[in-house]
């Protein structure tokens, strides 16, 4: 089945009062919503509800209920991409309600999406079986999901699944048993018992269900029940879903600098406006962006609305939660992949009912069913992890803007190095722009120098130049921290047989296997395949001839250890930590000064605060300057800026050194001059001349199959029959084998579609794709506004 669908088959959520959408208020060329809005419905008195608990927010928008017996369109929560008609039950139905309906002999769960389609004759309409005890999905949320599905050419049910990924969603309010540390010591300890008690001791604030506790401790449930009998573990009844602690909005933050005050005032006005607006908050690392947007959070909460802060990296949430607690006396609610099922469910319900006012999370938090979302902050907005690259392909930054435009709320995009699209939108006035020009206190931006590697005397297989090594030695003497940055995980990117020249590659992908010496294995960074390091070359059989080529973070660590044998080093690479929690702890210890030299991958570029750091050395500034990628220069610029911005946050001035073989490259030059605006202007001019985004729009099309010829044949057929695209003036480039031509045994062929900014791209692509048949082995992926061209 093709992923594409005719985008307008399902009418999106009906909006009460159905205001006409005024043009395109935000920077996206989103498709128009079909005007299936605003049919007046039969008046039905709302059900007499019990008095709401005090923490519940007032209903922000009122939606008419469907009258008893009225025809409604139900969206099944399965794969079926269409509305099914039923009639409302005797007490009527709330739009957005989760319901059970009969489908053939079965009962399925669905959502009351809007009025029925009229496809089923009146006489055959079956009634909704029952309404489930879950907060209904509000109209703005349904509209958001509908428009996000249309924008990304995703079947609506797949999009809705992003918003309903909470376990036990439809089970209703209930009590449950939870387990905590008990009062009694017990005599006979076993390994299993010790593990259970250790988990409870490590998480005093959590209450686990039996399954969660057993899972985390790696024991059977009987062990826990035994401990309960002996009084070492307490079993208690708890409401499944409790509201989160209330933040103290009157607590005082730091006293802001004049620049910060101006920015905070502008953002507060944005929050008071209760209308859609987006602001690019630009400021170097350490200029106080977080401090300033917390003021907007406070104002939003004062308005009785909710706020969401998106972070690019789970490891950053710890520091952020601490900041929030420090500022408001209680932490924010967290949403990310490392949460327990119970916490997910609780947060889902609490965002829907108002029991969570400030949420911090990864990109998927944007799909939480907030009751009244007043503010979305996208911190480090340039970060590539905001684009989800598998499953539903969406960019959380753009979707935040879409959601805010529907919810009438504010968006703050915070970054020292915004992406070109955001910079451009601020430049042409679509976004407001606030700039924090200086670092707080005495901290000044680091001086940035290029180390011209052509002039350095450096041995083969070594990567730290004498100039950089010298600078590190100075830091060691002064007991300051240095950071050496290399954006490559593992020991060496290539393993070569010195006898026959063979390079070790992944059996399933067109990718080299990367040696991870720490794990003593070879690993494919595409598919995750690992295998032990062979002794003999798999090609020629020669033994002892396999040798590493090129640097990875582990190999750099080895070199640093031999250069500075007495220094304490720490390697920060995502694959070296078993869990988000252990990574978080490592980062906190390093920030406290537990290491003299930090060796890290791009993980360190993501906004961590290391106050004792005064030197940032970039091992290979040229890596990434060239790529098949439209955004190579922009990303290199952002990464180098972020890394060099890590140095000198406190009162010691910082220094950044970029090792490069091309000190005259325009990107390197712009970084050296500290000339961001110059860089963006040049980059924007280049894109304009090439007719590339944001001055045009792209869609990446990938066809994949186990059979290379099948994929190529279909791509050729698609490229030849492009009338729907030609009609809107779009060009089709390709087909060509993708840069990574095989992943997990599937061959990949790419096409690229380019259209004018104003052209109805999604509509044309849907028509185009609908012309072709896709046998089951052939998979079509459509990526609107692609970030990756691999
Ligand atoms: P950014 O988000 O731009 O990197 P932060 O808001 O994290 O900057 O601020 C960097 C550091 O400076 C933080 O420790 C923050 O508490 C502190 N800080 C920011 N503004 C002020 C201020 N006006 N007075 C005192 N400390 C401040
Ligand atoms: Zn692989």
List keywords for this structure.
binds zinc ion; single chain; six-stranded parallel beta sheet; 790 residues; 20 helices; seven-stranded parallel beta sheet
Task: Present the secondary structure layout.
Elements: E1 71-76, E2 84-87, E3 98-103, E4 106-115, E5 130-131, H1 139-152, H2 156-163, E6 175-181, H3 191-202, H4 210-217, H5 221-229, E7 233-239, H6 258-272, E8 277-283, H7 289-302, E9 306-310, H8 317-328, E10 333-335, H9 341-353, E11 358-361, E12 373-379, H10 396-407, E13 410-415, H11 420-427, E14 432-436, E15 447-452, H12 466-477, E16 481-485, E17 494-497, E18 513-516, E19 521-524, E20 530-532, E21 546-549, H13 553-563, E22 569-572, H14 580-591, E23 597-600, E24 613-618, H15 632-645, E25 655-660, H16 666-673, H17 676-690, E26 696-705, H18 708-720, H19 723-727, E27 731-743, E28 746-756, H20 761-770, E29 779-784
Parallel strand pairs: 8-13, 8-14, 9-11, 9-12, 10-11, 12-13, 15-25, 16-23, 16-24, 22-23, 24-25
Antiparallel strand pairs: 1-2, 1-4, 3-4, 3-5, 6-7, 17-21, 18-19, 19-20, 26-28, 26-29, 27-28
Residues 254-257, 260, 283, 285-291, 440 line the site of adenosine-5'-diphosphate.
């Amino acid at each position: 089945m093709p992923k594409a669908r005719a985008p307008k088959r399902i009418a999106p959520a009906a909006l009460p009062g159905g205001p006409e959408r005024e043009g395109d208020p935000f920077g996206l060329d989103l498709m128009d919503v079909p005007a299936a809005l605003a049919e007046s419905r039969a008046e039905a008195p709302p059900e007499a509800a019990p008095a709401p608990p005090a923490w519940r927010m007032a209903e922000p928008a009122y939606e008419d209920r469907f009258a008893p017996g009225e025809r409604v369109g139900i969206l099944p929560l399965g794969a079926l991409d269409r509305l099914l008609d039923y009639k409302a039950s005797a007490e009527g139905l709330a739009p957005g309600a989760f319901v059970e309906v009969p489908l053939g002999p079965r009962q399925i769960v669905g959502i009351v999406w809007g009025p029925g389609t009229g496809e089923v004759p009146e006489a055959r309409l079956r009634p909704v079986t029952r309404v489930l005890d879950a907060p209904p999905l509000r109209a703005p949320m349904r509209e958001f999901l509908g428009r996000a599905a249309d924008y990304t050419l995703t079947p609506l049910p797949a999009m809705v699944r992003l918003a309903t990924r909470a376990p036990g969603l439809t089970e209703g309010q209930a009590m449950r048993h939870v387990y905590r540390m008990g009062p009694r010591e017990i005599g006979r300890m076993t390994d299993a018992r010790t593990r259970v008690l250790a988990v409870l001791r490590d998480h005093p604030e959590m209450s686990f269900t039996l399954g969660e506790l057993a899972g985390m401790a790696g024991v059977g449930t009987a062990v826990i029940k035994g401990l309960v009998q002996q009084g070492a573990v307490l079993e208690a009844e708890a409401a499944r879903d409790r509201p989160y602690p209330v933040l103290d909005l009157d607590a005082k933050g730091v006293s802001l600098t004049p620049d910060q005050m101006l920015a905070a005032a502008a953002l507060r006005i944005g929050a008071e406006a209760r209308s859609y607006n987006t602001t690019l908050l630009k400021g170097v690392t350490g200029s106080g962006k977080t401090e300033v947007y917390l003021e907007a959070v406070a104002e939003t909460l004062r308005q009785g609305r909710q706020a969401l802060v998106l972070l690019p990296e789970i490891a950053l949430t710890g520091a952020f939660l601490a900041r929030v607690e420090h500022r408001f006396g209680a932490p924010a609610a967290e949403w990310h992949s490392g949460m327990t099922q119970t916490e997910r469910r609780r947060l889902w319900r609490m965002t829907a009912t108002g029991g969570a006012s400030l949420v911090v999370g990864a990109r998927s938090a944007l799909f939480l069913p907030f009751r009244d979302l007043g503010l979305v902050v996208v911190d480090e907005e340039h970060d590539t992890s905001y684009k989800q690259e598998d499953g539903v392909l969406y960019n959380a930054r753009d979707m935040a803007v879409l959601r805010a435009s529907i919810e009438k709320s504010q968006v703050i995009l915070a970054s020292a190095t915004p992406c070109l699209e955001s910079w451009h939108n601020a430049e042409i006035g679509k976004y407001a722009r606030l700039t924090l020009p200086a670092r707080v206190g005495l901290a000044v931006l680091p001086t940035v120098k290029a180390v011209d590697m052509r002039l350095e005397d450096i041995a083969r297989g070594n990567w730290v130049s004498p100039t950089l090594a010298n600078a590190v030695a100075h830091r060691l003497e002064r007991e300051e921290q240095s950071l050496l940055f290399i954006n490559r995980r593992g020991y060496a990117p290539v393993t070569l047989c010195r006898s026959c020249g063979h390079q070790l590659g992944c059996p399933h992908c067109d990718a080299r296997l990367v040696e991870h010496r720490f794990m003593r294995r070879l690993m494919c960074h595409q598919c995750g395949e690992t295998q032990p390091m062979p002794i003999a070359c798999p090609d020629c059989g020669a033994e002892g001839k396999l040798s590493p080529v090129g640097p990875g973070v582990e190999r750099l660590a080895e070199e640093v250890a031999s250069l500075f044998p007495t220094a304490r080093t720490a390697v920060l690479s995502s694959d070296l930590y078993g869990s988000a929690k252990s990574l978080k702890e490592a980062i906190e210890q390093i920030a406290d000064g537990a290491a003299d030299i930090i060796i890290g991958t791009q993980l360190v570029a993501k906004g961590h605060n290391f106050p004792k750091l005064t030197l940032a050395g970039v091992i290979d500034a040229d890596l990434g300057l060239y790529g098949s990628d439209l955004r190579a220069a922009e990303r290199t610029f952002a990464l180098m800026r972020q890394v060099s911005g890590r140095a000198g946050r406190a009162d010691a001035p910082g220094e950044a050194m970029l090792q490069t073989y091309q000190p005259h490259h325009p990107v390197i030059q712009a970084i050296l001059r500290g000339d961001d605006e110059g860089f963006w202007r040049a980059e924007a001019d280049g894109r304009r001349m090439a007719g590339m985004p944001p001055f045009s729009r792209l869609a990446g099309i990938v066809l994949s199959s186990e059979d290379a010829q099948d994929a190529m044949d279909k791509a050729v057929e698609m490229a030849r029959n492009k009338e729907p695209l030609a009609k809107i003036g779009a060009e089709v480039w390709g087909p060509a084998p993708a840069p990574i031509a095989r992943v997990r045994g599937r061959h990949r062929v790419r096409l690229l579609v380019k259209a004018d900014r104003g052209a109805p791209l999604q509509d044309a692509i849907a028509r185009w794709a609908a012309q072709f048949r896709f046998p089951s082995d052939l998979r079509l992926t459509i990526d609107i506004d692609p970030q990756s061209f691999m």
